[in-house]
């Protein structure tokens, strides 16, 4: 049973890192559940501080992931139409057959949203789309970095408790 939980936890963390890139999957919560799986192994002392701190950062980064692209759009001169367009474009782009369609979806969604708001000002719409794209990249980088940090914590826990299994 221990090995099943070890493999499940590791797979959840790797799946969470992949989910950090794909906008429709809750990557960081999946990775955090991988850490929790580790503590269900019999004989592992539970470190509630580690679980609490990682849960806190998982929640904060997950919330920021929704705020950063919208703020990027707003900072580059976008309106609510551009912010909504960014979010809609992320979701639609995820389901398109184009590779990495979610990246282009954020850009195109903000651009189209701004054009709906004011079809005369294409330069502002383009700047807002650039802001949405920059915000999307910043949020994705933050999630992937934290997912890799959770993987490092998992490996550290594995090495720390090595003697239990062998």
Give a structural overview.
By secondary structure, the chain is mainly α. It has one domain. Helix content is 82%, strand content 0%. The model has no long low-confidence stretch (mean pLDDT 84).
Brief description of this entry?
The protein has 166 residues and is mainly α.
Q: Supply the helix-strand structural class.
A: mainly alpha
Can you summarize the main beta sheet?
Answer: none
The low-pLDDT segments are none
Indicate the mean pLDDT: 84
Q: Number of DSSP strands? A: 0
Strand content: under 5%
What is the topological layout?
Blueprint (H helix, E strand, L loop, with lengths): L1 H20 L5 H13 L8 H28 L4 H15 L6 H17 L4 H39 L1 H4 L1
InterPro entries: DUF456
Organism: Flavobacterium indicum (strain DSM 17447 / CIP 109464 / GPTSA100-9)
Keywords: Membrane, Transmembrane, Transmembrane helix
Descriptive tags:
transmembrane, membrane, mainly alpha, DUF456 domain-containing protein, DUF456, 166 residues
């Amino acid at each position: 049973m221990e090995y099943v939980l070890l493999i499940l936890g590791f797979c959840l963390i790797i799946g969470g890192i992949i989910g950090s890139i794909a906008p429709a999957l809750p990557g960081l919560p999946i990775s955090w559940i991988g850490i929790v799986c580790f503590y269900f192994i019999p004989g592992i002392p539970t470190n509630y501080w580690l679980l609490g701190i990682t849960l806190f950062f998982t929640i904060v980064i997950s919330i920021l992931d929704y705020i950063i692209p919208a703020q990027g759009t707003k900072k580059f001169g976008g309106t609510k139409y551009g912010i909504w367009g960014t979010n809609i474009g992320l979701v639609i782009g995820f389901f398109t057959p184009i590779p990495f369609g979610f990246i282009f979806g954020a850009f195109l969604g903000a651009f189209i949203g701004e054009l709906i708001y004011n079809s005369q000002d294409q330069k502002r719409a383009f700047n807002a789309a650039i802001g949405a794209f920059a915000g999307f990249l910043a949020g994705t980088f933050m999630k992937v970095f934290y997912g890799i940090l959770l993987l490092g914590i998992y490996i550290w826990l594995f090495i720390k408790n090595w003697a239990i299994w062998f």
